[in-house]
Structure formats: structure tokens, C-alpha cells
Design a protein that fits this description.
- This protein folds into two domains: about 70 residues, Arc Repressor Mutant, subunit A, CATH 1.10.10.10; about 190 residues, Rossmann fold.
- The longest helix has 17 residues.
- The mean pLDDT is about 90.
- It is built from seven helices and twelve strands.
- The protein is α/β, with parallel strands linked by helices and about 270 residues long.
- A six-stranded mixed sheet has the order 6-5-9-10-11-12, sandwiched between helices.
- It is globular, with a radius of gyration of 21 Å.
């Protein structure tokens, strides 16, 4: 095998790690791929760590031990993260987005791969320490951001539905109250999650927390621990304060005139 140049090794390593975020790739994989010694791959990893941090790509981490190797965690860092959220806020403050009933049109934003990818990277970055074992969302608008968050964390995605589907087998069904006071049903297949595991909730919108609380109640039926929740947009309401374990990327409130809607980054950013 011809000797592989360092710049070629770095390009291939970054591609392999970026294609499998948050997964541990053994050093032996790269040693066999390039026909290189472990010390050479270790030096290459050090260079990747510095490069990823310098350009805000994420974190390249090395893990020791029998199951050790190298892992890439994509995330936005510092001011770069806040700048991206501010850009999303500006898009949502466009006057023609206000809908009857005080709602805000955001479907186009949740269908934009670039915007949703930014959201997912930020959610993943803040949620890695929580050690969730799967991502939970409610159909349907929250699915894109939940899917990309699951991809960034290399976790399975579980989708709760409004009604049970025959092709999903027996299911657990609960009733929950929405923020508007309606009683709705939430359903999840009994085979979807493992008892005793850890869930991270990801959703598109929170107004009073009815749906998020419904998903918490649903997880209690499975004896699953909810380690936190991330929502794209949450309504600021003194009567329904946002729980401490909920990370709202953006906060929605009314302007001084009572008609215009204001969107700003979440305080935790």
C-alpha cells in the first residue's frame, strides 16, 4: 500500500467522523485504513482537535481504554451559536408571519435543512451531558428538528402519535390537556422504547407546555426517565413559566402595542 499523505488522512478522518457523529471510532479502524501506526493516527487526531475548535466545527475527543477511540461531536460554539439564533429570530419576526389567533407561521423554517441543522447542532451540544438514550417527539412538525438532533447524537428517534396505527402493534394511550384547554390523545407502541431508558424530548413549539407534559406522562407509563426537553420556540407567559429543564431556542412575546410579535434567543444562550 502506498504511503498516505497527512492531508489525505486528515480529510478522510474528518469525513468518517462527521458521517457518524457522537460514535466512537477505534484507532485501529484508521490504522488499518491508512496502513499507519497508532502513534501517527494519534498525532493526526490532535491536529483534528485543534482544527475543529479553531473553526467552530465541534469537538474531536479521544477516549482511552478497551472501548476507546476517537469521537466527533458537532456543535456551534460561543458567539457563532448566538448569531445563528439571532438570524432565525429575524426571519420569524417578519410581519406577514402573524396568523389569526396569535400564532406564528414557522413551517417553512422547520422545512429548511440548513436552519433545522443549526437548531439540531445547538440542541445536541447542550444535551450531550444529559446522556439520553433516545429522542422523543410528537408528530408532526417537530419531526425534522428531532430527526437531525437524533442524527447529531447518534440516537434513535421515537415519535408519539395522536392515534395508534395498526402496523405498530399494541400501544399505550394517554389523554392530556393542551394549553388551549382541549383534551387530546397521545399514543406510542409498546415496542418503541425500553423500560428504564433515558429520553430527551425535542419539539417545535411550546405554549403552556401541554404537549411536553403529555410526553412526560407518556414516558412514566414506560418507566422511562425524561432527562430534559428542547423546543424551537416557546411563548413567554407569566402564568406558565418555562420549566428549568426545558431549553427553548427562541422565545415569543407580544410587542408593546399588543399586536406585533417579538422573537428573541433563549436566556440560556
Amino acid at each position: 500500500m502506498d504511503k498516505v499523505k497527512r492531508n489525505e488522512r486528515l480529510a478522510v478522518m474528518l469525513h468518517v467522523l462527521g458521517s457518524a457523529p457522537n460514535r466512537i471510532v477505534p484507532f485501529s479502524t484508521f490504522c488499518e485504513m491508512f496502513g499507519s501506526a497508532k502513534s501517527t493516527v494519534s498525532e493526526d487526531t490532535d491536529l483534528l482537535q485543534k482544527m475543529a475548535l479553531r473553526y467552530g466545527l465541534g469537538k474531536v475527543e479521544t477516549l482511552t481504554g478497551a472501548a476507546g477511540g476517537v469521537r466527533f461531536r458537532p456543535l456551534d460554539l460561543g458567539e457563532k451559536r448566538r448569531e445563528r439564533v439571532l438570524a432565525l429570530c429575524e426571519r420569524l419576526e417578519e410581519p406577514d408571519r402573524v396568523l389569526p389567533g396569535g400564532f406564528l407561521y414557522q413551517s417553512d423554517l422547520l422545512s429548511d435543512p440548513s436552519a433545522v441543522s443549526d437548531m439540531a447542532r445547538i440542541f445536541a451540544g447542550v444535551s450531550y451531558p444529559l446522556l439520553p438514550e433516545f429522542i422523543l417527539t410528537m408528530e408532526t412538525k417537530g419531526i425534522p428538528v428531532a430527526m437531525l438532533t437524533a442524527q447529531a447524537m447518534s440516537l434513535p428517534l421515537v415519535i408519539a402519535r395522536h392515534s395508534n396505527k395498526v402496523y405498530e402493534g399494541s400501544a399505550v394511550n394517554i389523554s392530556y390537556m393542551t394549553s388551549s384547554g382541549r383534551i387530546e390523545t397521545m399514543s406510542l407502541s409498546r415496542r418503541a422504547v425500553r423500560e428504564g431508558s433515558r429520553a430527551l424530548i425535542v419539539d417545535d413549539f411550546m405554549r403552556g407546555g401541554g404537549t411536553v407534559n403529555g410526553m412526560r406522562s407518556l414516558m412514566k407509563e414506560f418507566h422511562v426517565d425524561v432527562v430534559g426537553a428542547c423546543v424551537v420556540l416557546a411563548v413567554e407567559d407569566a402564568n406558565h413559566p418555562i420549566p428549568q429543564d426545558v431549553k427553548a431556542l427562541m422565545l415569543l412575546s407580544r410587542g408593546e402595542d399588543g399586536q406585533t410579535l417579538k422573537v428573541r434567543p433563549g436566556d440560556w444562550l
